[in-house]
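Appendix B.2, paired examples.
Example (i):
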Amino acid sequence: MNILLLGSGGREHAFAWKIVQSPKCSQLFVAPGNAGTAAIAKNINLSITDFEGIKNFILENSIELVVVGPEEPLVKGVVDYLLNQKETTAIPVVGPSQLGATLEGSKDFSKRFMQRNNVPTAAYETFTADQIDAGLAYLDTQKLPIVLKADGLASGKGVLICQTLDEAKASFKEMLLEQKFGAASAKVVVEEFLYGIELSVFVATDGKSYKILPEAKDYKRIGEGDTGLNTGGMGAVSPVIFADEAYMKKVEELVVKPTVDGLAKENIPYKGFLFIGLMNYEGQPYVIEYNVRMGDPETEAVLPRIESDFVDLLVGIGTGTLENYNLKISPDYATTVVMVSGGYPESYEKGFPISLPEKADQTIVFHAGTSTNDKGELVNQGGRVMAITGMGKSLDAALKNAFSTVENIHWEKAYYRKDIGQDILKLMK
């Protein structure tokens, strides 16, 4: 079949890499894609929010399946748009409805959904600018540290963990009164801080049945030892030692089932991926957040562990036949190290030529913020530039494979964290 994939990041390169391995895929188009997807599929110069352009491209190129990678077009309603056009209504789309995407588009909406459906999560309250005094009074009652979350989409950067009450109050005012995160912080969720180890759980669902994909742990801060500013993600590890069979059974019973059942019960159309950010607190799962798509860079560690046909999975989601899909997962380890432009997540320079190793055993180089310049050279074009995934029978072997390739990739001012996976290695010892 002809498949259209929307997006341009490392997640989309991983999707493309997996899709083209399937004999079910005859032609893959990626809009807009990056330099990595250009090598294995056909990039299309089309914005992910140009819904009419997407519809016309689908019709002109006999597209039989649409896969939406990032959250922005989902939150803006691309799935509803395509399913409401008579020419495209019969074409399966992998991605939730606009209402379903509100689970990521609004932190307040998702917290209320969790409460209604008895999904374990941290205590919280939501405030707007006209409730500033009530919000400041509420902060006085909270234990430290205090978590502040911009209600809307903020590219993974709208969460602040404040260590003092003064910092929390100043940040709260900045978010609501000075629009620190733009329109995303028109509402602010004040949340109880949960201690423990974070875990990302990925679920594929067609709205009725579901499949739990390999779990992963990601690393969000720019600095080693989880210090510095939050980023979109600096690395990931899969599988995760503390997510054993007993714990994952709890996750399924306490989180996954009530979430999928809640979507059906509340008539929220959802055919897509659900990323559940969890905190393992004293052996119990608590939901930190929902994302309505696969995570990045976790996708680059999760997809290499899926052994069954990925296009069959996508078709199962899009056509409501997921219960028939037999998911096979490799026991091997996959570890991803993200290489970023110097200065990220703040301002950074781009356009530096990138040199890649000729060969990388047991390693996959996924492109994210890359493009080619007028001379045909590969250059850095974004903050997160590449995600290098190492495979191995052990975590140690997978990390060694990833880092040996990372050390042979060069461009001016490139940066990466050298401690990815080290906390898990210590737990294993």
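Example (ii):
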Amino acid sequence: MNSRMLRWASGIMITLGAGHLSVVVLTGWARISDWVRQGLWAAVPFLGTSGDTAQLVEALRDKTIFWAGPGGFAVPLVLLGCLTWHLAGRGVTVPAGVGWGVAVWSVVGGVVLVPSPFFLGAVAGALIVLAARRGVGAPTSHGS
């Protein structure tokens, strides 16, 4: 039962992260393909860009796509979801603090960005907390 909660939590996190990356790729494909054509190196300016308004708008668009996609929360959320899935399969309890962190972060994000699927992350966080409180099982030892 507790492993099932962790599997649901991980599925939510993986879906949210992958969904977010998909939306960013679909909406920003023209700029992303420009980055690839430019060779990716320094395609997104880190600091302020001087120039005319059109250059400033392009730089802002690049930064937005980067921070909404590969530089944002989506990749770590997918990785955390995969780790949670893996640990649940081994019967290892994910610490409640991870669940609380995901839940609080998701609620704050959902309040700031309405409407948003951010609140689904709070469900994932709550499932992790519940599984931790019930205890999925003792961590397994593989002789390492």
